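Summary for the steering committee. The consortium agreed at its last meeting that each partner would contribute one worked example illustrating the joint modelling workflow. Our contribution is presented below. We chose a case with several input lines so that the handling of multiple components could be demonstrated. No manual editing was applied between input and output; the record is shown as generated.
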Amino acid sequence: MSRTIIPFGPQHPVLPEPLHLKLVVEDETIVEAVPALGYVHRGLETLASIRDYNQMVYIVERVCGICSCIHAMCYCQGLETMMNVEVPSRAKYLRVIWSELHRIHSHLLWLGLFADGFGFESLFMQFWKIRERVMDINEATAGNRVVISVNVVGGVRRDLDKTQQRWILDELDKLEKELRQLMKTMLDDYTVKKRTVGVGVLTAQQALQLGAVGPTLRGSGVAQDARQLGYAAFDELDFEPVTSPEGDSWARSKVRFMETLQSMDIVRQAISRLPDTELAAKVPGKPTGEVVCRVEQPRGELLYYLKGNGSKNMERVRIRTPTFANIPPLLAMLPGAQLADVPIAALTIDPCISCTER
Amino acid sequence: MYMLSNVLRNIMGKYSTRLYPFETRPAYEGFRGKLVNNIHDCIFCKSCQIKCPSQCITVDPKEGKWDCDPFACVYCSVCVDACPTHCLSMENQHRKPAPSKFVVSLQGTPRKSKKADKSAEKPAEAAAPEA
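What follows is the complete predicted structure of the assembly.
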């Protein structure tokens, strides 16, 4: 049979992200997928040479809108390791709370987009309705909906008082109840399962070999989560990586759904154990040396390589985002799939192209 | 079955959204909205200009001018934390959309005494070792 190349993206009705794949098809079956990246390169790393290391916190936050807090947290943790700063424990717990709130709203955003991807518009709106209340929590406690700017090198800038803690817990209880009502529709509905089960299968061995991260990896049954490293206050909190052994699109959506519920539990734990210390430690001197820092983003493991030369500007701020690691697994899961299933499979790695290209 | 009853409830029930421009939600107390400067207390120390990550603030100590480009501002409130006289603050209302860009320009009284003299001396000192 003759082969045809069909371009997928960078503008596609299903994905808001400029992901571009050249799909080699035989009839309607994918034989090969070739990615093309670089449409939204912004040159963020160059800014490190003209902005000082404290200002860079607000610049790395803008690598990705959805996981802004976690980017800043990773950068700050890297610098704190480099400069031997002991972060007060209250700051560590507050970082956990805000980063988990970010994970909740990111996963809800994805679940909505995924529902929209297979054409279930009303489910999409239900998820986003819930998400809006998480954004309200962010706005009320941190001062902004998305880019919350709470992290500084040495700690955090805002505190949660008792009333706010109570309010967050009350809201989370309501949100969890509403989310659990959607569980059956998302994971056990006949039409939904028709679109997701068996689409884009990635075995555990393939996932490990190709270096998949985050829900893509855990959806193949590998229990690996960068939060197990115990950064911030995660070493003192109880959680187990959520996994699902099937390795298809359904498994990845299940992992994300369960992780949303798990994150709510982590926020509750963190609030109940919030210690009473100051918020930020003093940071003496300028950064010297190099450090690699890893954290778990909603999309997977995020890696920062930082290099300081004793001046106020960083020499290198190299960022590897989870989508970059998840592109080879995406290419492995596409061959054999139908052309109509490509948007679903591509969505399940939760591509964030503008963070990948920075 | 949950979705079916939910969809019916949504058709019959009230709107889930607000009729936005006419009905707005009251702002949260700690929300970082518009940046305001109480220019009478400003000492034109340039702390905000130096700390600002988007470099949207320009301070001219000689003329006593404080300019801010609200369209470049990223609303991080670093300048508010850095301000030694607490003349900068953030309102909890966001800036209204505008048809054209503008710069907020405030004119205060420049500090004369030492600061002006020092800033005049400094370039001379800096130039001396180079020469």
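The radius of gyration of chain B is 23 Å. The domain at 37-111 of chain B is CATH 3.30.70.3270 (Alpha-Beta Plaits).
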